[in-house]
Amino acid sequence: MDVRGSRRDQPPGRRAGGALGGAPVGYRAGMPVAVVTDSTAYLPAELAGAHHLTVVPLTVVVDGAQGRESDEITPAEVARALGQRRFAVSTSRPAPEQFARAYRRLLDEGADGVVSVHLSARLSGTIEAARLAAADIGDRVVVVDSRSTGMGLGFPALAAGAAAARGEDLAGVRRAALETVDRTSTLFYVDTLEFLRRGGRITAASALLGTALSVKPILHMVDGAIVLRDKVRTAARALTRLVDLAVEAAGESDVDVAVHHLDGARRAAELADALAGRLGGRLRDCYVTEIGAVVAAHVGPGLACLVVHCRD
User: Where is the composition biased (Basic and acidic residues) (predicted)?
Assistant: First the structure.
């Protein structure tokens, strides 16, 4: 297996590096279907390029300064603003016209259709904007809800890209994305639920539960929503439990795993090592990336996230 990344002591299959931000990647001429996703997939740049994905960026505003995530506003800037308790951090979806321009360009370049795969409708209005744009163009554009974000979105987008590269039609590419959605689990730990509460991503009652009991929360995605999965007493136990839950999600399957972090590269490397030790040869690929500014704005510093994609 080709191993790429910056750490010399990587386990087989680990690929480290920065995630792709707001820069579009592109469509390969001759493919019957083009695949679009958004910047919250946090795909390693080489993967997005190899699968000919077009990436539409979301926007972040930090103290009035607006920019595309990753290439104009970085997760480090967001983490710093949140850490200094400057809460003037917000995010916004792409406008429908941004999607419409991307779809028209891809169709003009020769695609017969477009499959557009995006972060959960229960987390963002991004998919609503994509659907509005698709409705203007017609049935040549199909929009898929990944019911997640990060590589919970990235793995379905990659599956769609692989199906498109094989020459599958619009229905086949859509099916590849949806099947991968069903085989992907997203689990994560945050130091505090306060930022998720402020952004409306969890209920005030859930946030209060964690604060009142002084527990460390482990969350997961259920039908596109963030749901409390487990509670432990310390951060160290939370990370151990996170690995346990990822191994449980893998079952007996061969898996690909993504490890996301926010300003926590060392912690992410330790999680990747722990997973490699537990999963052994069933771990096919492991991608380690820092999340971008949009998700950073809603989770705050301290995020550790594991995304498990079962290959069968």
Answer: 1-12
Classify the C-alpha dihedral 116-179-297-301 as positive or negative. negative
* Architecture of the domain whose range is 184-310: 2-Layer Sandwich (3.30)
Contact between residue 312 and residue 253 where contact means Cβ atoms under 8 Å apart: yes
CA distances to 26, 57, 149, 177, 237 from 36, in Å: 9, 11, 14, 12, 38
Q: Which residue intervals of the chain bear CATH 3.30.1180.10?
A: 184-310
* Cα 173 to the center of its chain, rounded Å: 19
Q: What distances in angstroms separate CA 145 from CA 115, 224, 292, one per listed residue?
A: 11, 8, 20
Residue spans in the chain of domains classed CATH 3.40.50.10170: 14-182
At 35, phi and psi to the nearest 5?
-120, 130
Q: What is the CATH number of domain 14-182?
A: 3.40.50.10170
Residue 231 CB partners (closer than 8 Å, separation 6+): 209, 210, 213, 215, 216, 217, 218
Type of residue found at 173: V
* CA distances for 33 relative to 117, 161, 168, 176, angstroms: 13, 9, 8, 12
224: three-class secondary structure by DSSP: coil
Q: List the chain pLDDT tens, one digit each, 312 residues.
A: 232 333 323 333 455 555 554 445 577 888 999 999 999 999 988 888 899 999 999 999 888 888 998 688 888 888 888 777 655 788 899 999 999 999 999 999 999 999 999 999 999 999 999 999 999 999 999 999 999 999 999 999 999 999 999 999 999 999 999 999 999 999 999 887 766 666 555 554 454 445 545 678 899 999 999 888 988 888 899 999 999 999 999 999 999 999 999 989 999 999 999 999 999 999 999 999 999 999 888 887 789 999 999 998
205: helix, strand or coil? helix
> How far apart are the C-alpha atoms of 221 and 92, rounded to whole Å?
21
Joined together, the tokens standing for residue 85 give 């308790």
